[in-house]
Amino acid sequence: MNKILIITHTADNESVTSVMQHIKALGGESIRFDVDRYPVGAQLTTQYSAGRWQLWLEDEHGSHSLDDISAVWYRRSYNIGKGLEKVLDKEFLSSSIGEVRRTLFGMLEGLPCFQLERYSVYRRLDSKEEQLRIAADCGLEIPATCITNSPEKLKAFMEATGKPIVAKMQSAFAIYREGREHVVFTSEINDSHLEQLQQLAYCPMTFQEKLPKALELRVTVVGRELFTFSIDSQQLPEAQTDWRKEGAALVEDWKPYTLPENISSGILKIMDLFGLNYGAIDLILTPEGKYYFLELNAAGEFFWLDKLCGYSISRHLAAVLLGQAERRE
User: Fold this and answer.
1) Collapsing DSSP states into helix, strand and coil, what is residue 147?
2) Which tens digit of pLDDT belongs to each residue from 60-97?
3) Omega before 39 cis (within 30°)?
4) Both 177 and 85 in a single domain?
5) What is the CATH number of the domain that holds 30?
6) Which segments of the chain does DSSP mark as H helices, in order?
7) Among 9, 24, 167, 267, which residue has the least CB neighbours within 10 Å?
8) Which domain range does residue 269 map to?
9) What is the DSSP letter of 287?
10) What is the pTM of this model?
């Protein structure tokens, strides 16, 4: 029986449960490792002796042997080391969390099995700039883009583009005021932003031409299968620049969509070049019928789209993990 290790956390959504149920239905076994319980509520051991590697995970569910794992699904790794702040002195906390992270990621990187995806692959995908370069090389259109912390270069880019400009961060970015988290969404540059332009020198940002939108598309790629849905984000004013601002209000409005063959082919080429078996890709379709690549998230959410297609995404993800569907090795 194939055994799948799932890297996640206790607050993850129902997508993990759905994939685990499909793994079981397809004849496999899954082990859920909630990394926010490590190391306070879980123990991880790697041992080499007598010419043999052995690995164990011990948690509230018992002891699990990991040296016969056939595949890893690296879903999420949020809040590693949670609870250490309650049992360690502050002077030791940062170094201890660093060691915990290195131990976990080192163990995963060394596992000689199929992984969706390896930690090192995720880190490479942090580069949105490389994503854009590869997308263009694969024949997809990308927006005019400037990544900079130079106010002068941004001014020149805006003048040369001659169109409205949006600003975005390359990572999940939030500002904390009075104990509350304020997520930074993609926003259009306005006069008030221009008045604060000199502050750009202290934090680089990504700037792109603002594309007119007929539809926004989310393409979930699993193995070599594409699950594409569209949303008319222009129906709600707050969603027009970034649909995520009204994600809950739009959740039932996504519709299945068929991509042109050349766009599907370009997306699969990107996946091939990165060696990925999962990716959530955002595209814009303009009123003129042009498709633009925005970004690829190798751990992008899919649970709300999964419900709209009878859980086909989680079912195919389980099949890829079990080696029962075509995948990139």
Assistant:
1) strand
2) 989 999 999 999 999 999 999 999 999 999 999 999 99
3) yes
4) no
5) 3.40.50
6) 14-25, 84-87, 90-110, 119-124, 128-137, 151-161, 191-195, 247-250, 261-274, 303-308, 312-321
7) 24
8) 212-321
9) T
10) 0.91
